[in-house]
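new request in #modeling-help
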Amino acid sequence: MATKRFTCSLQNLEKICNYVTECAKQANLNESEIYAVQLAVDEASTNIMEHGYGQECPNRIDITCEPLENGLKVVIFDDAEPFDPCTVTEPDLNVSLEEVKPRGLGIFLMRKMMDDVKYATDPEQGNTLTMIKYHKP
Amino acid sequence: MEIQTTELKRCTVIKTAGRIDGSNAPQLSQALKAITSKGKCKIVFDMTEVNFVASAGWLVLIDTQKTCKPSGELVLVNVEKGIKDSLNLVGMGSYFRMFDDLTLAVGAF
């Protein structure tokens, strides 16, 4: 299990992506599964930076990768304001272009790309977002 | 983020490479607005060298599509499979015509 700390800047999204890409490769995920992990982690991190810290972000975003027997678990820790992405309502699917609303798209993508997404918050430990992507042979 | 814009007779081709995420989506938005504000609404986005698009990027493209239609359109070229799959997964693949070849995309106008 490896944890890496990132400072909270949108400029770090690429570094975060490179880190989880390496983890996903080591966990033997295939190309489309790797893209799913990249996208989900990017959306989660962007959300923490933009909504949690309001782009002031003085604190931490720690990302832990844990290879599983048949997949990869990524855990993101932050100490921003508590925000549970699992409570955001799914945007309407298949609406006409004019009706598309920007809210919630990132979180929806994140939930759709991963097999399991769980959020927990604790006044002492901060927020923990746990996401799992399974490898389907 | 380097963005190239080429004006053709039928349409405008825009091209960039690498990632489109929260850090650079505003730049892409600016480049697209520079085109549409001139009344040019037939746009081809060459995504041959783009390997990642986060929701911030899609929102820019959706916004541009809303501006362009119905007089014009934003079409996409050479969208990588993972990128395309993610868009289809959230039901938004239908908002863009996608081509595998730049000539075909330009010819669509």
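bot summary: Chain A has a mean pLDDT of 87.
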